[in-house]
Amino acid sequence: MANKAPVSPPRFVTFEGGEGVGKSTQVKNLLHRLSQLGIESIRTREPGGTPKAEAIRSFILQGNSEAWGTGAEAVLFAAARLDHVNQLIGPSLADGKWVVSDRFHDSTRAYQGVAGGVQPRLIDALEELALNGYSPELTIIMDMDPEIAFDRVEQRALETGIPIASDRFERENLDWHRQLRQAFLDIARDNPERCFIVPADRSEREVTDQIWSIVQDRFSELAARASA
Ligand code: T5A
Question: Would you say domain 12-227 falls under CATH 3.40.50.300?
Answer without folding.
Answer: yes
